[in-house]
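Chapter review: from sequence to fold.
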Amino acid sequence: MRRKLILKEVNICFFLCLFLVVIGLQASRAQKVYKPVNHHASREARNLLSFLYSIKGKYILSGQHNYPHELTRSSDSTFAITGKYPAVWGSDFIDPHYRQDIVEEAIRQYKMGSIITLMYHIVKPFDPDSLGFAKGVLGKITDDQWKEIITPGTKYYKDFLQKIDTVAGYLLELKKAHIPVLWRPFHEMNGGWFWWGDKQGRDGFKKLWMIMYRRYTRHFRLDNLIWVWSPNSPRATPGDEADAYKNYFPGLKYVDVLAADIYHNDFRKSNQDQLLALAHGKPIAMGEVGDVPTPEILRQQPEWCWFLIWAHFNWVNNSRQAMRALFSDPKVISRDELLKMREQR
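The token string follows.
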């Protein structure tokens, strides 16, 4: 009898220890915090990434994209509609005529408390920037052209470096101003509408990402960048397909934040869950949205760290009621609320 009692106690202790180990592993995974992928990241960049981890699963930063030729119009419109400025201000280096204006506005926004996110609709390396979005960014290129772009020493490779090096100069100005940037290049690469899109495999998109990553971190020492990888949410719409995230992922060693661009009100929970599976505990975000998520969607999908409404979509695609409901939700952080959170840290 005594032996049975001893065995029973041993079994209970074993299963209790096993239970605690499992709970401990789950907790450690949930609380895992990665350092920036750039080991030389600035103090400001580290603090920004740390802040994203601190709100992960609890809050979501509001954000607004602004076109380069009207750098505050969309953010100002969000304020006019909701009474609150978004916490994240964003723009695009696509047009050379406005790049210095973007730097100056980013500095102004940062001083007012905004988090800065920037992107770059890069024109095909062999085309002049004057072609702009419709003729220079949209459209496919041939396999031979792609191969030359990613092959060091070729003309197209040098043309590509010239374009990204020029933009690096503006990002260096923000580095000198001690401003961290959520840097989101080559977005929606899993779709077929941009020249850098729909390129899978070892010599596909991942190689293009690595060319920029190494150039910016090693040559230019752009230590103020948080690297945001931003595919489109997967979809099977005929003629407008977007492939699975995983086919274009550069890897955890080269990405700080995983984002998804979500349009057509496509807030399926699988868009979040598939990104989380790749992220392994790293933050995720809505890199762009057209229709805004509802508070109910945010409750069902609590892991998003920010959303960025595309320029003009805040009044063209969304009702005032939808915008106000979103920005009044306790989970959504505006610029003023962001400032208060920083004061309390």
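Two observations follow directly from the output. The chain has one domain: 38-344. Confidence is low (pLDDT under 50) at residues 12-29.
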